Amino acid sequence: MNPAALSITDLTVDYPLADGSVVTAVSGVNLMVAPGEIHALVGESGAGKTTIGNALMGLLQAPGRVAKGRIEIGGKPVDIRTGRTEGIVQGKDVGAIFQDPMTSLNPLFTVESQLGETMRHHLGLNRAEARQRSLELLRAVGIPEPERRLKSYPHQLSGGQRQRVVIAAALCCDPKLIIADEPTTALDVSVQAQILKLIRGLADERGVGILLVTHNMGVVAEVADRVTIMLKGQVVESGPVAQVLGAPQHPYAKALIGAVPRVDVKLPRLPVPAQESPGTAAAREQVRARMGGGDEAKAGVLSVDNLVVEYGARGGLFGGGSHVFRAVKGVSFTVEPGEIFGLVGESGCGKTTVANTIAGLAKPTSGSVTLGGLPIGAKRGGLARKALQMVFQDPYSALNPRLRVATAIAEPIAFYHLAATKAEAAEDAALLLEAVGLDRAAGARFPHAFSGGQRQRIAIARALAPRPRFLVCDEPTSSLDVSVQAQILNLLKDLRDLAGLSILFISHDLAVVRQMCDRIAVMKSGEIVEQAPTEELFAAPTHPYTRELLSLVPSLDKIAREPAPLGGAIG
Amino acid sequence: MSLAAPNQPATRRRRLQMPVSVMIGLAVVMLMLAVALLAPWIAPTDPTNVASFDLMSAELPPAFMPDGDPAHWLGTDNQGRDLFSAILYGMRVSIAIGGGAVLVAASLGVVLGLLAGYFGGWVDIVIMRVGDVILSLPTILLALLVSGIARAVFPEAGTAQWAPVILIGAIAIHEWVQYARTVRAATMVEASKDYVRAARVIGLPPLHIMVRHILPNVMSPVMVIATINLAAAVLTEATLSFLGVGMPPTYPSLGTLIRIGNEFVFSGIWWIAVFPAVTLVILVLAVNVVGDWLRDRFNPKLKGR
Q1: How far is CA B281 from the centre of its chain?
Q2: pLDDT tens digits, residue range A62-93?
Q3: The pTM is what?
Q4: Which site among B129, B201, B207, B217 would you substitute to test the A interface, given the most A Cβ atoms closer than 10 Å to its Cβ?
Q5: Which domains does chain A have, with CATH numbers?
Q6: Which chain A positions have a beta carbon within 8 Å of B199's beta carbon?
């Protein structure tokens, strides 16, 4: 019988700290990958899944070390201290595919030299042989015109093609094991689907064992045979995909899988372990009173009319060139008061440009954006300006690192004179913090003290501080873990219900959009190709592009899940 | 990398530890600052008071030499000034002018750099091209030009009262460009970050965003440049005074003292030039050691060493 592609026994990885204590990143993990099998390793950030991948490749960062355990690759033991062993050569028996295809290829070398180098080094091939084999590999990973692509530099390839080249490089010495660390996270859905298919094919045809590190349950359901769920460095559940995802046993596994937004049905709320404190409810009530009260114009309709945005128009003092790029080509839609309107599309379709223009961060070339009949950003500091706020994608850069949280939230309150005194503004800020589910004491700290999800809550609290009527959310959860994502999505829904906010919700994740939105517009190359109420769009998409997108979403729904919790499907 | 989190306080503490050379440098800088500040109380005589000059005791050697006078332990200069007192006062002037020039240059550079980086477009073009033109002239040439013109149109410019102001201006007019360039680049990076975009969406005015949000995040490189430029500014002041366009000869600065001493070096009266020169070297060296360390410490490329 063939030895397992990978067998890990009782692996423990420690990070000794300067003060003598030790952080255990991975403890007592057992894992087995058979040849031709795709084994998914899932867990939220900090669960230790990447650490395992790094330990296998001998890439653990300086203080980190394998404290105990045994690793065998293709039946041969790996020296746990160096990550090396007799007969096992890095890059030969173990191939690696990393997350970002932009950075895992050297921009100064052609595809041929990147692939050929490894083969000439490890396999002792000469130039012509290496070239021949590179061609074969490029064909195997499905790159069109492989002869021409050999001469290309990485920047001449698209993201998907680059990832294919990285996979080809991982394959070049016929490894027994490939470690794929979030191989499709940086890619669009349609490209992701192709790459996943390719990876599945490799396992089936070449009998390579693949350890797939990912946080995307949909990807797991799509391609993996077995799955291991990790929590804080320990394995909580492991087994065949259908069994683990279909009927998880461990409470954490249940919660994690339950938090994955479903594409098949719409739930009123995403199931998350309940942890709303009574203080939050009370604070929300007060925030509602403040936001609802007052003479401010009620939400009003946001109306985007034939919006065109062009970039790179006139050059500077000496620039004569006029390379105009039309990012948005005549987009029109309206968002009713209290509605959540979704804008979906792949990267580069212009959805973020639309968001920026609505928020006043980009200037429209032509067309208009009005909120309640008032043009956006026309009057500086005026009503229309503060009525519309934005939540950004990356919570790590959305907060000023040098400003205490409470100060940052109180700033717009003071600026718009929404509170009579400094103390009142501080009280308002504390209330907002409570309303988004944080402690009021959190205000005294700086942003670096918070996790990604907490920061996004703070960013939302700050966006709410000027008492807006309209919120633009640009991929607000795409950099967060699933369970945190579910909490943030619920929070946004609650706030909509609470204060009658209208929300423009931008995302590339169709499952998230389905859970969140009342109506959806699908964008492609700067145009809206289809616009419909959510249920209608998912039930009967009319545009071919929408149909394609929907069919490509990797989802859990291929696996029978437990019936939707109470409340069930609501349109 | 959630693992980095528990690591952070430890590494920060480790990085704050400074090598012995830096500690010595810092101690020397502190000592010289204190001495310069307290000169009027420490110095045995007042070298700016012409009435106290005693031509009879001019060019006395230091106290440790055979003919030395114990009252003047570093000797006296050609006008009979106590050299030790003159050096203390000279250091005061050098540090004040160097510090003043750095302050003026940094303020000007930070403001212009923020404007150029935040607004871009023609504001950026105008500010940075003016900076390029200024940088195409050597510091000393520009400083000579400025103080020369100032003296021509404003006769008072050579007096002890006005000379420092002219010197600060003459040095700062060249140095601000470096701050402006650094701050402009950092501002462009910060301005594209979401927290600045969020502030714009909130509707905060540009001035508020620049001062409250961007400025604190671009200040660390400015502090580093300022420290390194302090040494350069002290040297430029000394050079200008040495060339005779700086402080008037009646008011001692390290540069004027070296210039006076220069005429006597070959007649065996070496101390007038050597003691101020050694002081200058120690001061500049100490500031540079501290500045280099700061630069390395704040350089993201050297982090994690």
Answers
A1: 14
A2: 677 788 888 888 777 776 665 554 445 555 67
A3: 0.77
A4: B201
A5: 6-258 (3.40.50.300), 278-311+324-558 (3.40.50.300)
A6: 400
